Amino acid sequence: MLSRACRLVSRNSLHGRVVCVREGAAVPTSVHRGRDYHIASGHATATLLNARFSPVKPITATVLMRNLSTADGDKSALLETIPEPPAIPQAGAPEIADIVAGAEPAFSTLGLGGWTPVGIVQNCMEFLHIGLDLPWWGCIAIGTVCVRTLLFPLVIASQRNAAKMNNYMPQLQVLQMKMTEARQAGNAIDSARYGQEMVLFMKEKNLNPLKNMLVPLAQAPIFISFFMGLREMANTPVESMRDGGLFWFTDLTICDQFYALPIITSLTLFATIELGTDSARMSAANMQTAKYILRALPLFIFPFTINFPGAILCYWACSNFFSLVQVGFLRIPKVRDFFKIDRIVTHKPETLPIKKKGFTDGIKESWTNMKISRELEERARIDEIRFQKAGKGPLVKTFKYDPTAPRTGTSSAVNAKKR
């Protein structure tokens, strides 16, 4: 018999076209029976179904295979019937609803992310959480460590400058005292001269007070970006952050009900200010007030931090702990020698020109200096106004008689005789 393997496709998708593959004639049984297939097209001749399949064109998609026999009559009607596809087994197959329920929505669908500094922070947090499969507390900690590590070169530059300023503190304080005394006495010329001497001295010793502010100025925008980014994530909220915390603060979208995180944040901030503050920068007379303000900062911010979400306090506490570790690391002598940071010289308080004052005395001195500076500025302003009026207004009479007024001849003769 001549059998044909027919490849059928959907009538709706291919407009009822059928492709047939014909098998060649059988060979003797003693020889290996091969199969010679070719595609029957509309132009094929000398085939049994030439007339029926004359418009058929070759195609490639295969749906099923069916054998036909030329001896059992015309079974071409079987080509018209396409069986139903088998049912998809349901046992063990996950439901689409279950898959979707376990997935987290992208930040872009929640209105988070973007290319702003805040959006970049949120994108990094999303990458650490989704790409590396980390919990949210781990993402915040790793992100904090990475950012603070990138700022480490600025910390080295600041520490080098602070050590030099500490070692040259006596000379700087002498010039500062002379300049302050000249300013308080109203001698602007001497004050400017001593100020110029201080500038030349600092240039000669390669000192720059602004280098001590590199780290705070660099950390401020980063802290604000993390603060705003984590606050938006907690307020949206990101559902996975409800159980992405650690220990007692499992929900990072709400504040700590035990007030432990705010207390830890304030204590670590105070320790960072005490250990990480450069003595050369804070021992100057004009920085006493700033030192006391920084010491009072942890107590001042505590009432506000108790209402912050756990995500923000987690970042703040991690940053403070990193600062403490960094300060302790840079206090090691071998580490300071490796980074070419000068050894800090300890000056005795009695040998310094500017004596260390207590909190009350420092506040009083700062207030007195502010009053003197304000009075000098007001006096200079009044002198400038008087000078302008004297140049533009009428002449002020400072003598009893006007020498330019005409005089009579009699009086002049009498006066001459009397002389």
UniProtKB/TrEMBL annotation:
Location of the protein in the cell: Membrane; Mitochondrion inner membrane
Listed name of the protein: Membrane insertase YidC/Oxa/ALB C-terminal domain-containing protein
Membrane-topology annotation of the record: Multi-pass membrane protein
Database matches in InterPro entries: YidC/ALB3/OXA1/COX18, YidC/Oxa/ALB_C
Keyword presence, Mitochondrion: yes
GO molecular function annotations of the record: membrane insertase activity
Domain Membrane insertase YidC/Oxa/ALB C-terminal: 136-327
Pfam families per record: 60KD_IMP
Key words of the record: Membrane, Mitochondrion, Mitochondrion inner membrane, Transit peptide, Transmembrane, Transmembrane helix
Primary residence: membrane
Family: Belongs to the OXA1/ALB3/YidC family.
Single GO cellular component term: mitochondrial inner membrane
Keyword set includes Transmembrane helix: yes
Gene Ontology process terms (BP): protein insertion into mitochondrial inner membrane from matrix
Transmembrane regions listed in the UniProt entry: 134-156, 212-230, 258-277
